[in-house]
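hiii, so i know i said id send this last week but things got crazy w the move. better late than never?? heres the sequnce for the chain we talked about at the cafe, plus the structure i predicted for it. fair warning i was half asleep when i ran it
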Amino acid sequence: MQPLLSKQQCSAARGLAITSIMLHNICHNYHFSIKESEFEWAIDQTLRWGDYIQHPDINLVIQLFSCFGYIGVAAFIFLGGYGLVRKYEQGKQGDAPFGAGRFIFNQYRKLLALVLVPQLLFPVLQLIITHHTNVTLGGLIAQFTMTTNFLTMFRINPFIYWYLGLMMQLYIVYALLYRFDSHRARVWIPVALIVVSIVMHNVVPPESLFGCLMRDNVFVGLLPFSLGMLAARYMREEHLSPRRAACLLPVLVIMFLGFTLNFVLWGIIYAVGAAMFVCMARLLRGRLLKAAEAVGKVSALIFVLHPLTRYINNTVVASFIPHSYNTMVIIYVVLTALAVWGYRKLKIDTTVNRLIAGK
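okay and structure toks below
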């Protein structure tokens, strides 16, 4: 039996997800854009979107990704859990001894190699363009140790790198759970984590300190991450045929929009969002599939480099065409593509990986 998502479809889903995230992170910066309900439940923004879509204007794409593009994060977390199971339980790695400490260290090393150069480049960009920077030594240490999710007082630009700390926590969760290898444990432990996530969302006051920390840390990712693990273990290709995916996708879109109107349902919106990207990946064919796959293969680089191109776009580019927002978005996409191409051409990613690995 074939897995739910092939390797190509996983890459395609990542490509769709990073495109959504990248566009969201530029679009929601504009003063007129409708904001998202990512870290705080904002029903007023969803209602504002409902009013807007009745009389859309030239900024429709900007408003769409500003309000809803953040959901690509859910797909990334889902694919993280899915990929770990496929690699360490069902792939060639599944036959090798699994050491939790070695696994955690290797994942940390990969994340550090990914963020090291872009994070160091960001304050240089700030100093060149605006002659000042808000990046501090404490912030750099917190970022490079993946602890900014806890030490929010040390959080520095680009703020989006908080996601790397979240993934580090989820890797630790997976390493701790790996030794529970009975069939029953591999079903019920992820289910228990999903229940804990939902209960915490509804019990902890969202405006409390713990509620704020919860949204930045492992609790926000337990739901899609656990679903990813379960999908890899128990779902197969025939469970979601292209015809079923085509029927399910519009239902999921309606659910996604509806769930933003209710605080309880909003707590499980990451599950709906992840399912949407799975359906889209199952539906892609031909050139569209290959294009999404190509983007997915460099999604990690896009993730760490697009905050730099966004900063250039919001400062330098905006000074020349301050009100041409759609044009700025196009330039931002082109700049990001060039940054990824240059980064790979100079082999910066492979060089940093070798240095951190001590090779």
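btw The radius of gyration is 20 Å. thought thatd interest u
miss u guys!!
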